[in-house]
Amino acid sequence: xxxxxxxxxxxxxxxxxxxxxxxxxxxxxxxxxxxxxxxxxxxxxxxxxxxxxxxxxxxxxxxxxxxxxxxxxxxxxxxxxxxxxxxxxxxxxxxxxxxxxxxxxxxxxxxxxxxxxxxxxxxxxxxxxxxxxxxxxxxxxxxxxxxxxxxxxxxxxxxxxxxxxxxxxxxxxxxxxxxxxxxxxxxxxxxxxxxxxxxxxxxxxxxxxxxxxxxxxxxxxxxxxxxxxxxxxxxxxxxxxxxxxxxxxxxxxxxxxxxxxxxxxxxxxxxxxxxxxxxxxxxxxxxxxxxxxxxxxxxxxxxxxxxxxxxxxxxxxxxxxxxxxxxxxxxxxxxxxxxxxxxxxxxxxxxxxxxxxxxx
Length: 360
What we know:
By secondary structure, the chain is an alpha+beta fold. It has helices at residues 9-18, 28-41, 75-79, 102-105, 141-170, 174-200, 210-227, 241-248, 250-264, 290-305, 330-346; strands at residues 45-51, 55-62, 68-70, 87-89, 112-119, 125-133, 231-238, 272-277, 280-286, 316-323, 352-357.
């Protein structure tokens, strides 16, 4: 089904053309955003789509070889109709708007679509930051929050482009031009820094995500080898979390995870806290022996047990492992901590267990 033309369509098209971005070359800042969107949503396709009069054109794309399609078939054209919320299509074949769409019945075989509108400061929707899969699915609320946050970063990049262009046109004196351009460059660098933070932060809890954990573990393994110091790791799992979700619902589960993450911030400034996945957290402890890791793990366990969580109390089980000086195998460290975590669970939960870890 072809999408209706939005109200004030000419004003929307005028706003799009003010950015002078259509048919421009690829740019790293936009490509970084689509890469992050694809990673966070775990979809093979991610696009920055701008909807022109007769086509949708992709400023950046992951997993799709074409640079544009007809507007008649564009899912993003439907997303323009409500600029205030994302368009989510769990199964295109079951949606009368898209069931006979050539992009669904043929290549690229779209089944799932989620698009966050790119909304200008004067509230014109130019297109979307969208993620696409070839199988029906859903996205979590935190994934959608992150996709929407990234869509705002796309608009921030477009605004910086527009302002820089205006500056080049309007600056009559070189010194004024250079001064203002430097100011916008600083804003651009700040926007890039925010984007980097988004890519390394768990949207729900505000702690590091799995990507940040992997990067930090590599760095700490290097330092431990260089300085000949021990390195410890804690794997922290919320006890009975599936039952908690089943009983009280996923929103209550999200609150519980946020509460646990706040309690886990009792770690030292030198330690690194990340959400490893689901209800599991990880804490990297640089230059920390087995004994020191045990003390910190017990501090964390008590901190969580002492929190006030809606519905019922929440506890954690903790697995601890330590690499001896001179070894640098992160996989061994994680595997040992996982074994210890399993032992803590098996022995009754709400406790700490340690597993030895030696280089092969």
